[in-house]
Amino acid sequence: MMKDNPQFDFWYAVNNTEVVAGPQSRLETFGATMVNYHLVTELMDSVDKVRVREGKLKAFRPEIITPQSIDEMMLEGFGSEAREYADWLQHHADELQILKYGFKIQKQEINDYILSDPLEAVIERVKDGLAESGDPLGAVLVGVDRPWEVCLLKLMVELVQGSVAGNIQDIRQQQRDRKTQRHQQIEQAFLNASRDASKVPELASLLRQNGLFEHYEDRFFAAVCASK
After folding, report:
1. Cα–Cα distance, 145 to 9 (Å, whole number)
2. Is 211 left (phi over 0), alpha (psi -120 to 50) or beta?
3. Whether residue 182 sits in one domain with residue 110
4. How far apart are CA 190 and CA 177, in angstroms?
5. Sequence-distant (≥ 6) Cβ neighbours of residue 163 within 8 angstroms
6. Are both 100 and 183 inside the same structural domain?
7. Which of 64, 189, 199, 225 is the most buried (most CB within 10 A)?
8. Based on the structure, what is the number of domains in the chain?
9. How far is CA 135 from CA 10, 23, 25, 161, in A?
10. pTM for this one?
11. Can you tell me the distance from the alpha carbon of 60 to that of 68, in angstroms, rounded to the nearest whole number?
12. Rounded (10°) angle between helices 80-91 and 67-74
């Protein structure tokens, strides 16, 4: 029997939970993901009584933690070496992607039932049901009956581990696409300004909006002179 200690209960649940069938699809990069879990637990005071909880775990869109936010949120009270490292991160943002994941148990979606069978038999039955459903975002866990919500932490960790590489790849591709699109917009704006002097303010505004005026400053003034 577990001790009357919330901290003990927490770690007991974490250390006695196993994901026996994980989702086949990773978490969405640019939107929320709904994961369908099936948690199998033995009733504590009954023999061959097994509870199955079926519910939904909502994974929110992962957020990018920027080097600037690391500087602002995480380095307060640290020494000069940490500050120097934060400065380095700010100048190498393209080389770093740290993602923050958030999850929420959808309480209204929880369904549970009790079966009078050995634990292993129930596990196999639930796994077979998931396989037949073909649900790419379904998962089967074996854990403890109390506190059962803590068992979902193991699933969350595995979801993040299986998704972070693909999520980062998607984000970097999006950043490359945006950079290419921005470059094309700027080149088109320079071309328009070279043909029509009235387009020069529009070019200046575009460069400032993207924080690139200093980068293109020499070329901009050359274009201004050429348009006169």
Report:
1. 11
2. left
3. no
4. 20
5. 26, 27, 62
6. no
7. 189
8. 2
9. 29, 8, 9, 20
10. 0.74
11. 22
12. 160
**pLDDT 10s digits, 138-196:** 999 999 998 899 999 999 999 999 999 999 999 989 989 999 999 999 999 999 988 88
In a domain, 205, yes or no: yes
Provide the token pair at 150: 């803590």
Stated length of the chain: 228
59 and 24 in one domain? yes
Is 35 exposed, middle or buried (CB count within 10 Å of its CB: 0-12, 13-18, 19+)?
buried
Residue 63: partners with Cβ closer than 8 Å, 6 or more residues away = 99, 100, 102
Is 75 in the same domain as 163?
A: yes
Check whether residue 59 and residue 164 sit in a common domain.
Answer: yes
33: Cβ contacts below 8 Å, ≥ 6 apart = 27, 58, 59, 137
Outline where the chain has alpha helix (H).
6-15, 67-74, 80-91, 119-133, 148-195, 200-209, 217-227
The answer to whether residues 135 and 198 belong to one domain is no
The first and second tokens of residue 14, run together, are 């974490």
Does residue 1 sit within a domain?
no
The contacts found for 190-196 with CB under 8 angstroms, 24 or more apart, are 190/219, 190/223, 193/223, 193/224, 193/227, 194/223, 194/226, 194/227, 196/227
Which residues in the chain come in under a pLDDT of 50? 1-2
Domain housing 185: 175-227
